[in-house]
Specification:
Structural class: mainly beta
Order of helices and strands: EEHEEEEEEEEE
Radius of gyration: 14 Å
Strand content: over 45%
Helix content: under 10%
Distance between the termini: 35 Å
Number of helices: 1
Oligomer: single chain
């Protein structure tokens, strides 16, 4: 089964999750285990983890100068998901684009701006199937 989710020209702001997830140490302790404080959270719960085929695509108008993710604890967090992120401005957010269980997954992350974040991007796992991460700042 193939599942595709597309988010186009959305804005998320002030999603913090409260004291349970704020602050640098608690941010990283709860990064993948709690969706609290996360603008976009996608986790594939399929019992067939390696064969599951969930794709999330986040795209925005390239000329937009308004932040798409602003003042959130976490921007985009994925687990066992194919990820496409383009033309997204993340500002004043603890974690930018965080991805775990990347085995056999594909990533296209390009033309994004991560401004004033604690951690920009993270890829946890081995042997991502196909990754293209370029022209981000």
């Amino acid at each position: 089964m193939v599942s595709n989710i597309r988010l186009y020209n959305n804005t998320f702001s002030k999603i913090t999750g409260g004291v349970a997830v704020n602050g640098q140490q608690t941010l990283f302790n709860n990064l993948y285990t709690k969706e609290l404080g996360c603008a976009i959270y996608a986790k594939n719960f399929s019992p067939k983890l390696n064969k599951a085929n969930l794709t999330i695509t986040i795209d925005n108008a390239a000329s937009n100068s308004v932040p798409h993710i602003l003042n959130c604890t976490k921007g985009v967090v994925t687990s066992n998901v194919n990820v496409n992120i383009a033309n997204t401005l993340v500002r004043n957010t603890g974690a930018g684009f965080m991805n775990t269980l990347i085995e056999t997954k594909k990533f296209q992350i390009h033309h994004n701006v991560l401004d004033n974040v604690i951690c920009g991007m993270e890829f946890v796992g081995n042997n991502a199937y196909g990754c293209a991460v370029y022209k981000n700042s």
